[in-house]
Write a structure and sequence with these properties.
By secondary structure, the protein is α+β, with helices and mostly antiparallel strands. The chain is built from 4 helices and 5 strands; from the N terminus they run αααβββαββ.
């Protein structure tokens, strides 16, 4: 073989080796870096989107935090309307409130009778406490008392029946009502 032929073989061999090194370097070193960069950019874009969502949630929570006093007041009202009770069911306190309320309206509230609690058919964590009351007084004083009892006083009650008779001190009203308690204890609202 001639020198020229050997030089050509070395030239083509060197050229092939150089091309092989460039292509191999591309696939083994450069392309993985581009892929890693693209992956990091995609992750960054996803993170930016997630950050925007979380910042929106945070803004919503900050708005709700501004209303925390309103929420506490609502919770406190609900706790008064539906107290937690296991042993006394808060009935003695409630009956004292009714007697005080009767005095405020100028009527006599007496003859208390309470039955065992019954679990509500619609809400298993709520129990109904059947109570009977005797109310004596003038009709124009009994009516506002009943309105206050049904809609204004804090304890949730539902008047089931009422029986009105004439009595010694004006009118006698015997009512059957349900007071409600819950078996789910909630933390008291901080003042």
């Amino acid at each position: 073989m001639t020198t020229r032929r050997i030089d050509q073989i070395w030239l083509f061999g060197g050229l092939a080796l150089a091309i092989l090194l460039v292509v191999g370097g591309w696939f083994m070193m450069i392309k993985p870096q581009y892929t890693a960069r693209d992956s990091v950019q995609a992750d960054t874009a996803d993170t930016v989107i997630q950050l925007a969502k979380e910042q929106k949630k945070l803004a919503g929570l900050k708005e709700q935090l501004k209303k925390v006093d309103e929420y506490k007041a609502t919770l406190s009202t609900a706790q008064k309307a539906l107290p937690y009770g296991k042993t006394t069911n808060k009935i003695p306190e409630f009956l004292k409130q009714l007697q005080t309320l009767g005095t405020t309206y100028g009527i006599e509230v007496s003859g208390y009778g309470a039955s065992a609690p019954e679990v509500s058919e619609t809400t298993p964590t709520v129990s109904q406490l059947p109570i009977t009351l005797n109310i004596e007084g003038r009709i124009e004083k009994i009516t506002p008392f009943l309105k206050h009892l049904q809609s204004e006083q804090p304890r949730a009650v539902l008047i089931e029946s009422a029986k009105l008779n004439s009595g010694l001190k004006g009118w006698e009203l015997q009512i059957s009502l349900d007071a409600f308690i819950t078996s789910t204890e909630t933390r008291p609202v901080d003042s």
